[in-house]
Amino acid sequence: MKAERLIPGKILNPAYNGKNHRRALNLGVEYSVPREIEVEAGYVHQSPDCWVLCCPGYMNAEPVCRPADKDCEKRVHQWMTKHRPAQIQNIQNLIDNADKIKDPAERQHVGELAKAYGLKKAGGSKKGEQPAK
Questions:
Q1: Is 64 exposed, middle or buried, given 0-12, 13-18 or 19+ CB atoms closer than 10 A?
Q2: What is the spatial distance between Cα 30 and Cα 18, in angstroms, rounded to a whole number?
Q3: Which of 20, 54, 70, 92 has the most CB atoms around its CB within 10 Å?
Q4: What is the Cα–Cα distance from 66 to 58, expressed in whole angstroms?
């Protein structure tokens, strides 16, 4: 499966090896292979999970990649039509029940989710008011 980067960014370095890094640390030897590397727009990820990079991210962030083959395109379409609506509904449920959240930081986070996803409390009425029929 392949996905092409739309923007520059960091990725895990395919040459990095965690076991070798730990071994070098234990021996007191420098391990010079960086854990992450910078890649330019146009870089093609090849991995069974790269389709995730083609979907909206946390707080509705724009995807960082586009599908670069039919397998990736199919998997993204599958997620966007099946799982994305369920994800949005879960966020809507949080927003609808935000007044029951006691922790101010958590309540603020739900407000930020509402703003990021363009969602409002169902009914839109103020506390104690009945929605117009």
A1: buried
A2: 13
A3: 54
A4: 17
Q: Alpha helix (H) ranges present in 14-97?
A: 18-27, 70-96
Residue with tokens 């990021």: 116
CA distances from 25 to 14, 21, 28, 32, 69 (A): 20, 6, 5, 11, 40
The total number of residues shown for the chain amounts to 133
Q: What gap in Å lies between CA 88 and CA 37, rounded to an integer?
A: 33
pLDDT in tens, 73-114: 999 999 999 889 988 999 999 999 999 999 999 999 999 988
Break the chain into its structural domains and give their ranges. 2-117
Whether 132 shows a pLDDT value over 70: the answer reads no
Which of 96-105's residues contact partners 24+ apart within 8 Å by CB, and which partners?
A: 96/121, 96/122, 99/127
> What is the rounded distance in angstroms from the CA atom of residue 93 to the CA atom of residue 117?
13
Single-letter residue type at 93: N
Whether 11 contacts 45, CB under 8 Å: yes
Q: Is the pLDDT of residue 123 over 90?
A: no
